[in-house]
Amino acid sequence: MPLRVFNPMATKPPCSTGGLIPAGEQDPLEHLATLTCYAVGEPVYRQRQPAVRWHRILSGAARKCVQMPDGSRHIVDFLFPGDLFGFGKANQHGCSVEAIAATTKVASYPRDGVVALAETDPRIARQIRETTFDAICRLQLRLLILGQRTAIARVCSFILEMADRTAANPPGLVILPMSRYDIADYLALAVETISRTLTNLRLGGAIAIHRSRIVHIRDRRILARLAEEADGEQSLFASHAAALHEASVQRALQEAARDDRSPSESDRR
User: In this structure, which topology does domain 151-258 adopt according to CATH?
Assistant: First the structure.
C-alpha cells in the first residue's frame, strides 16, 4: 500500500487570524491583503530591501536567510502556513525570504495599515503579539540547537522541531519541504554530515525515510535522548548503527556470492 501523505504546507484560510475572529465575521485584515504565488527559490523580499509590508504564508513554505559578506548563507528560520514575517524595528529587511515549496502563496499587508488597524482592534494587536512571541521562541530554540556539540544532537533536535511545527500530520510523519542543503545551512553543518547522520538514524531504527523528504519517526524517545547530548547514549547508538550497517553489507556480499555460484540458465541446458 502506498504511503498516505498529508501535506503540512496545505493551504490555510486566507489572512487567517488564528481563531481570533468569530466564525461568520469578515477578517479585518482581508481588505489590506495582496495575494502572490511564488515558485521555488523566488524571493518574497531581499535582504536590505525597504520593510514596508508584512507577510503571511498561506500555503507552501519559505526559508529566511542571511547572506554574509564572505558569500556564505545562514538560514535563520523556516516559515510555514500561518507564520507572519517581515516585521521588525528597522526600516529595511535584515534577511531574505525565499519560497522552498512549489506554488507558495503569501498574503502581504502594508505595514502602516496593519499598525493602524491594531491600534483600534485588540484582536489584531493580540495576534501580532502572539506571532512575535512564536518567532522569538523559534529563535531561542535555534540558538539552543546551534549550541549543541554533536551533529547527531542537532539533526535529532531539528527533526523533533519540524515534527512539532507540522503537528497536523499523522503522528510521527514529518514532510520536509526544504533540501538537505537548506538543513545544513540551518544547522551550520556540512550537507554530507546531514546525509550521513540521517542514514545512521535510519540504520539505528530511530527513523524511516521515504522519497528523501518524508521522515517517519519510528522511536521519538531515541531522538529525544540523542538530542540531549548524552555522550554515552550517542556512542552506544553510533556503535549499534555501525553494527547494523556492517551486517547489511555482509548480507549483500553473501547474496552476491550465492548469485555468482548459481548456474545460469544456459549452463543448465
Answer: Arc Repressor Mutant, subunit A (1.10.10)
Q: Which of 13, 11, 21, 14 has the alpha carbon at shortest distance from 124? A: 21
Rounded to the nearest angstrom, the gap between the alpha carbon of residue 212 and the centroid of all alpha carbons in its chain is: 14
Q: Which residue, 45, 76, 39, 110, is CA-closest to 182?
A: 76
Return the axis-axis angle of helices 122-146 and 151-165, rounded to nearest 10°.
160
Give pLDDT, residue 142.
84
The whole-angstrom separation of Cα 236 and Cα 200 is: 12
Q: Return d(Cα 114, Cα 122) in angstroms, integer.
A: 12
Which overall architecture, per CATH, does domain 31-146 show? Sandwich (2.60)
Count of positions (residues) in the chain: 269
pLDDT, position 19? 42
Parts of the chain with a pLDDT under 70: 1-27, 167-169, 229-269
pLDDT at 17: 43
Half-sphere exposure at residue 101, Cβ-oriented, CA atoms within 13 angstroms:
22
* Residue 106, Cβ density class (10 Å: 0-12 exposed, 13-18 middle, ≥19 buried): buried
Predicted model pTM: 0.75
pLDDT at residue 39, as a whole number: 96
The rounded distance, in Å, linking the Cα atoms of 72 and 78 is 18
Please give the pLDDT value at position 139: 85
